[in-house]
Design a protein that fits this description.
The structure is a homodimer. Chain A has helices at about 15-25, 40-60, 75, 80-85, 110-120, 165-185, 235-240, 265-270, 295-315, 330-340, 350-355, 380-405, 410-415, 430-440; strands at about 25-30, 35-40, 65, 70, 90-95, 100-105, 130-140, 155-165, 195, 210-215, 220-230, 240-245, 250, 255-260, 290-295, 320-325, 345-350, 360-365, 370-375, 405, 425, 445-450, 460, 465, 470-475. Chain A is of the alpha+beta class and about 475 residues long. The first copy, chain A, has three domains: about 15-270, Bira Bifunctional Protein, Domain 2 (BirA Bifunctional Protein, domain 2, 2-Layer Sandwich); about 285-385, Rossmann fold (3-Layer(aba) Sandwich), CATH 3.40.50.800; about 405-475, 2-Layer Sandwich (Translation Initiation Factor IF3), CATH 3.30.110. In chain A, the strands form six sheets. An eleven-stranded mixed sheet of chain A has the order 3-7-8-14-11-10-9-22-25-21-20, with helices on both faces. A five-stranded mixed sheet of chain A has the order 16-15-17-18-19, sandwiched between helices. In chain A, helix 13 (about 410-415) links the parallel strand 20 (about 405) and strand 21. In chain A, helix 2 (about 40-60) crosses helix 6 and helix 9 (about 295-315) packs across helix 12 (about 380-405). The radius of gyration of chain A is 25 Å and the shape is globular. Chains A and B meet through strand 2, helix 2, strand 3, strand 4 and strand 5 of A and strand 2, helix 2, strand 3, strand 4 and strand 5 of B.
Chain lengths: ~475, ~475
């Protein structure tokens, strides 16, 4: 039943990823190709990510709203770059109410077209700006090689869309949201990220600039975990967001958009999981501590169960999300494996011998460390230990990321090492030809030009021409 | 700008409904026929309904998950009554990824087909039951005569889907959720409801029994505010939810489904709104108290604003959601109208004369009642007053509902009175022919056979044959 059948990371990382998702009861493929089913355990984690992110989105002055699932084709067509980027990936509704439609409807792959058109109707004067709205929604992008959480045809996300009076205001908004994403990734998901700007080839279709947070998975590959776009006046011109400025002239608004998705769950799995299954950071764990009582027969049960109840009460009072696994038809061993695979941060074992000693066995999921502590101290030990685990998970991930980050000048050196994974900081002249060459040679792409770096002029690692700015991060990516 | 342009309820109730939604900035029609845009104020109310409902759904043992937006046509076809009921209303995706699909995909109008099929894969033994899952999702049902919140092509809802070992368990679940809906409608939305069972003709397609909560709007028309379905073994047979029972035999599970939607926002508007706009129950108001400072020039502003800050601080400490409307380009009058139209439960006016007296003016949105109280007492008065308002709103709605509820025996009497609106309790023999006759004669339908009623045998009001059970509630409905 609870047999372990998880591939080892070192043997087959891709298979390991599939296995831990299946065994951790996170998600599965549905009978609709490319669409996933997010199971309760996976969705419980996503709900907590949502709540944390939503609080931050509201704290920075945004309100939630909801816009339609469908985008008329003609509306989509108004922004050339945008339609070119997205139309080939769209699901198209051609029939409804038993009739063929006069105009096909695209299932939204993203909502700039419909939201900017709406803003255009709402805005007349500078007094109506800024508009700062977010929506939580499902979007659809046709996907031939789906991977659970990472690349699915339908996925869940939030998309923020704002319109501003000036470009400076819009630019500040774009950075504010990038900071929110980075802070939430690090402090909630325990996933360290690099903030930076995308190269032109990796921009959102139609954007003036795309900013990103890039995380490094355990196999050294990069994962784009969130993006924030400075859309300039491109979409407000295409969709008509015009306002009368303070000086009386008619002007186009400056817009932004930004999003994170269920992909974050994939980032979490590949940052923290181990060969025994997924490992969930305490802040996101639907259950933070699971109690496995160990007993035989009704007599022992009558001795053990009241203590379990008492532990639950004191743990709840200490703010710990706790569950006792009282299933009668499963022995402790399979229960241990099951909760390990789900990644519950702490486990308590409690049987007759523990009772006699007045102790419980407390085990950390992240390190496997066991300690025996007096039962009376469980809550006062567990609550701060969850904080420690959260911090340790971030620090371990950061140390691994840093250990796999390299500053290189020699392209041959890069080519020989890129297969091992990691972030490679190299000088880049800014030419897309060099970007393309790297991709063709190594499958690596420019993940970003990191915000934290200082300019480091010198010869481009690829072509030798002058590279003026910060070093670009090259990596293979999900 | 903030000109009032709301039709009076007595003159044109339908126009009034559209007007208060527009003026209250709740929602609007999008350029996609039938799809609405839920604006931040309306969505803020919906978010609070969601949170309250979600807490209750979880407290009764359910977990959230997420299932695909698309349903393959062949899957839908497996349950004949179900497909007959829903297929004509479906939006159909025929193209994706720039290609025509081999099999069309329906955009989910409800998710029994996909969820029951999935449960069928998850369930092997009685140990895997019950499954108790809910999802918050968007659904699409083609709609030619859309009305904001009440009937839109796309709407937001939650749909719970459970599978059980026995019919008794499933029946208990159906009633538990009906109770949750009723309690939430009354205690959170302040919308009194009648619980009952639907007649066969009004059942969910494929259900063995459909239970409903029915609310009465101010014009006396009924609104079905939530439903809970006993699906018997119909769907588990169609979609293959089979398990090995405790006795070793293979059995089909007993399933249920239940949902409430953004329609609840429509119920709220039509229960509480008045000729000045919508009125939001305090528990759902994104802003519970708005402060309008009254001053001229910088000197007065410097005197008034610190007091406003102090009020906000003490109100927040008392748990009141408060906002100060400090917009410089609007005079107090238009601000009053705007927040009245949005239905904020309490308003504070504060100007120089109030400051000199040490008072504030506090106005209730629901009754229009004004009181002058010492500024120092604002928080201690406002917090309990919000509770009073919430209760008063429910009681007023209940009194109006009861005043418009009639027990009738004479069909001619009913026909002459049904146009005035209201719930009419009449004996009904159970024949669908009588139901149809009522509908043809009067456009009224059977809303439910109420749970709270006792059997009251006598002649059917329509045909005169024996009617054994409880009286049915006849009403015109939204």
């Amino acid at each position: 039943m609870a047999r372990r059948k998880i591939a080892k990371r070192a043997d087959d990382y891709a298979q390991w990823y599939q296995d831990v998702i299946a065994e951790g009861q996170m998600a599965e493929h549905s009978m609709v190709r490319g669409c996933m089913i997010i199971k309760p355990w996976g969705f419980g984690i996503w709900e907590r990510i949502q709540r944390e992110m939503d609080d931050r989105i509201k704290a920075t002055g945004h309100e939630n709203a909801y816009f339609p699932l469908f985008v008329p084709k003609s509306l989509f067509d108004k922004e050339a770059e945008h339609v070119e980027g997205f139309a080939p990936e769209c699901a198209v509704v051609t029939h409804g109410g038993d009739k063929e439609l006069e105009e096909p409807l695209f299932v939204r792959p993203t909502s700039e077209a419909i939201i900017c058109t709406t803003y255009g109707k709402w805005v007349e004067s500078w007094r109506d700006l800024p508009i700062m709205i977010n929506q939580w929604a499902n979007v659809v992008r046709w996907e031939m090689r789906p991977r659970l959480f990472l690349r699915t045809m339908e996925f869940l996300w939030q998309e923020g869309h704002t319109a501003h009076e000036t470009h400076d205001e819009a630019k500040a908004e774009v950075q504010t949201m990038l900071d929110v994403y980075a802070e939430c990734a690090e402090n909630v998901l325990a996933v360290p990220v690099v903030k930076g700007v995308k190269s032109e080839s990796e921009r959102f279709p139609g954007a003036e600039n795309t900013y990103t947070i890039e995380a490094m998975m355990q196999d050294g590959r990069a994962l784009q975990a969130g993006t924030s776009h400075d859309l300039g006046q491109v979409f407000s011109k295409a969709y008509g967001i015009e306002f009368q400025g303070r000086d009386g002239t008619m002007q186009h608004a400056w817009s932004t958009s930004w999003g994170v998705s269920t992909r974050l769950v994939g980032a979490l799995i590949m940052t923290h999981g181990d060969d025994a299954g997924i490992v969930v950071p305490p802040k996101l764990a639907p259950i933070q501590l699971v109690i496995i009582p160990i007993y035989k027969g009704d007599e022992q049960a009558a001795e053990i169960k009241p203590d379990v109840e008492a532990m639950m009460t004191s743990l709840r009072a200490a703010g710990v999300r706790v569950k006792a696994d009282l299933r009668e038809y499963l022995r402790p061993g399979p229960k241990f494996f099951e909760w390990e695979k789900k990644g519950v941060p702490l486990r308590v074992e409690y049987g007759m011998r523990d009772k006699e000693a007045g102790n419980v066995v407390l085990k950390r999921r992240d390190t496997g460390e066991k300690q025996i502590i007096p039962m009376a101290e469980l809550a006062s030990v567990a609550a701060p230990l969850l904080v420690t685990i959260q911090n340790d998970m971030l620090e371990r991930a950061r140390a691994r990321r840093d250990a796999n980050t390299h500053v290189l000048d020699d392209y041959a050196d890069f080519k020989s090492r890129v297969g091992d994974g990691g972030f490679f900081h190299m000088r880049w002249c800014g030419a897309s030809a060099c970007e393309t060459k790297v991709k063709e040679d190594t499958k690596a792409t420019i993940r970003c030009l990191p915000h934290a770096s200082e300019p480091d002029p010198g010869p481009c690692a690829i072509c030798g021409e002058a590279a003026e700015g910060v070093r670009a991060i090259f990596a293979r990516a999900y």
